[in-house]
Design brief:
Elements lengths: L9 E5 L13 H15 L3 E7 L13 E2 L19 H18 L6 E4 L5 H5 L7 E5 L5 H9 L5 E4 L2 H8 L6 E2 L18 E4 L8 H11 L3 E4 L5 H8 L7 E3 L5 H9 L3 E4 L9 H8 L4 E4 L4 H5 L5 E4 L4 H12 L5 H16 L1 H17 L10
Parallel strand pairs: 1-2, 1-4, 2-3, 4-5, 5-6, 6-7, 8-9, 8-11, 9-10, 11-12, 12-13
Helix pairs in contact: 6-11, 9-12
GO molecular function: glycosyltransferase activity
Keywords: Glycosyltransferase, Transferase
Pfam family, one: Glyco_trans_1_4
């Protein structure tokens, strides 16, 4: 990616409250924020990351930007859909202190880049004296919708897909589409292989148990990589089916993931919810590995017209197995196909290409931030 910025700015990036921004990434959202901070710094911007303790890139941030970690008394109770007892009692006052710091130092901060899934930053946006750009990473969560619509001055919003933008628009929140991006220098071309791969957060809505079933039908091995985000789900629906060609590798660093995915015959993507984007599809394609996926939410947008992707109805395990088998058994010319697959993915999702677009948005927000200026979409 280029190290040249349009104009160096000071940007406060607000991360979600749950997981540190570091490798191995807790999920696609954390990976996206991690890449965002690296990209902005590489292009000459001063980035202050407000994130959970233990995050990278916080060596020179104010103490108020280090938020308390979510610690479960018993890891067997841990889920990504709830917080540990008492966590928000500590986290929300800490986030409030970070927002106060931004307000008190508004003359030295050009922009707030908000990725929080809690409505508090949106609720305070009009009071900070600093323009805020909020990326919508989720379906329209009621508390976030309420905060966005209640703002005195219309906010500036980015949505990770046209699908997500349309869902939010139905709730009265307009957003510009800014798809997630990947670092092509880290997601490198792989040689392929014989087995299948599934990677991501191990939670019920990601449907890894159906990937296990589909892999069994193909007769191919399946390697699973990712953080367990719902311990009861893993214990009941995944652990009993490990072995006999199904292996769980745990959370991996991005270089390890790229090697794993790039060394596979096909990636299985099995969301059982309205996936806002589907970063794993773009990541797999960047290694040259084809993808068999459930067609739900923003998955079809990421797939586009790529011949290396086959979409099947959500939950149809037989169709998923057939799609994966077809892609994995493609035959001769594999190296050329993998090169074409990667090239097409990089052309659409390169972090370097997205950087200039993002800087244009940030410049517009910072330059035209004045009361009553209205929203842009």
């Amino acid at each position: 990616m280029s190290a040249r910025a349009v104009r160096p700015r000071t940007i406060a990036v607000i991360a979600p409250l749950r997981h540190p921004i570091r490798e191995p990434h807790a999920g696609g959202l954390e990976a996206m924020v991690w890449d965002r901070v690296r990209m902005l710094r590489a292009r000459g911007h001063r980035v202050l990351l407000c994130a959970v303790e233990g995050s990278q890139f916080q060596e020179d941030v104010p103490a108020e930007f280090r938020l308390p970690a979510a610690v479960w008394p018993d890891e067997m109770d841990a889920t990504d859909s709830t917080y540990p007892p008492g966590h928000l009692d500590r986290a929300l006052p800490a986030l409030e202190a970070a927002l106060d710091f931004i307000r008190w130092n508004a003359d030295t901060i050009d922009l707030v880049d908000n990725h929080s899934l809690h409505p508090q930053p949106l609720a305070r946006a009009d009071q900070l004296g600093v323009p805020m750009v909020t990326t919508l990473h989720t379906p329209p969560l009621p508390a976030l919708v309420e905060a966005a619509r209640a703002a005195v001055r219309p906010g500036r919003f980015l949505a990770v897909s046209a699908y997500t933008a349309a869902e939010w628009r139905r709730h009265g929140v307009d957003a510009m589409v800014m798809p997630n991006a990947i670092d092509s220098s880290r997601w490198h071309l792989g040689p392929g292989g014989e087995g299948l791969v599934w990677f991501g957060r191990v939670v019920p809505e990601k449907g890894v148990h159906l990937a296990v079933q589909a892999a069994r039908l193909t007769g191919r091995t399946l390697r699973i990589a990712g953080r367990v985000g719902d311990a009861p789900y893993f214990q009941k629906h995944i652990r009993p089916f490990l072995g006999d060609g199904v292996e769980y590798l745990g959370p991996l660093s991005q270089p390890e993931l790229a090697q794993l995915v790039g060394g596979s015959a096909c990636a299985l993507v099995t969301p059982l919810w309205e996936e806002p984007f589907g970063l794993v599809v773009a990541e797999a394609l960047a290694t040259g590995t084809p993808v068999a996926a459930f067609d739900i939410g923003g998955i079809g947008e990421v797939a586009g017209t790529a011949s290396a992707v086959r979409l099947v109805p959500m939950g149809d395990v037989q169709a998923l197995a057939e799609a994966a088998g077809h892609l994995a058994n493609a035959g001769g010319g594999e190296r050329q196909r993998r090169h074409r697959t990667r090239a097409a993915a990089i052309a659409r999702f390169s972090l370097g290409h997205r950087a200039a677009e993002l800087e244009t948005v940030f410049d517009l927000a910072a330059t035209h931030a004045r009361p009553g200026a209205g929203a842009w979409v």
